[in-house]
Amino acid sequence: MIKRIIQISFTVALVLLIVSCKNTKQKLQEYVKTYNSTAVNFKADDVTLTTARGYINDNKIELRFETSLELNDSNKVKANTSFPKLLKEMINTNQIPKELIEEGVQFDTYFLANDNTVLVKEIINKESVGELLK
Questions:
Q1: Which residues lie across from 121 on neighbouring strands?
Q2: In this structure, are residues 52 and 97 in contact, taking their beta carbons and an 8 Å threshold?
Q3: By CB neighbour count within 10 A (0-12 exposed, 13-18 middle, 19+ buried), where does 31 fall?
Q4: What pLDDT does 22 receive?
Q5: Please, what is the Cα angle at 95 between 69 and 26, to 5 degrees?
Q6: How many other C-beta atoms are found inside a 10 Å radius of the C-beta of residue 61?
Q7: Rounded Cα gap, residues 53 and 63, in angstroms
Q8: Fold of 23-132
Q9: How far apart are CA 58 and CA 61, in angstroms?
Q10: Given CB 3.0 to 4.6 Å as the disulfide criterion, which of 43, 62, 64, 124 pairs with 107?
Q11: How far is it, in rounded angstroms, from Cα 46 to Cα 82?
Q12: What is the reported pTM?
């Protein structure tokens, strides 16, 4: 009986070890899938839609934030202030995982006007994350 319990415990521990040992590419794919499935619940000022796209070979994730803002100078100024704050909050709440950044995944993030033109673009990687979190 004890031998059987030990065998089952060992098997469960081995399965957990194998499952938890994902490589960066697997984590990237899982992040994109999870992000897009929960994007409908995303709430931020002026953001109407957000999506993620993964580029496994480039070790990169693209995050797009579509907004209701028109493309003009005042909205560009507003976006240059609010978008870095949004990204900082997403990193601090693990919506953009530091673990992936530390493993070398680059996040190309775009804050888009209502006509899909770029208001602000931020690249988050090992080098830039510290500056963004200040």
A1: 110
A2: no
A3: buried
A4: 81
A5: 120
A6: 25
A7: 7
A8: GMP Synthetase; Chain A, domain 3 (3.30.300)
A9: 9
A10: 124
A11: 10
A12: 0.82
One-letter amino acid identity for 43? K
Q: Which long-range contacts (CB under 8 A, 24 or more apart) does 65-73 make?
A: 65/109, 65/110, 65/111, 65/112, 66/112, 66/114, 66/116, 67/111, 67/112, 67/113, 67/114, 67/119, 68/114, 69/113, 69/114, 69/119, 70/113, 70/114, 70/115, 71/113, 71/114, 71/115, 71/117, 71/119
Chain position carrying tokens 């693209």: 62
Q: 92 has which bridge partners?
A: none
Backbone φ, ψ for residue 30 (5° rounding): -65, -40
The DSSP H or E segment spanning 111 is strand 106-112
Share of the chain above pLDDT 70, in %: 84
Residues 38-46: what's their mean pLDDT?
91
According to DSSP, the residues that pair with 11 across neighbouring strands are: none
Which among 97, 92, 81 has a CA at the least distance from the CA of 35? 97
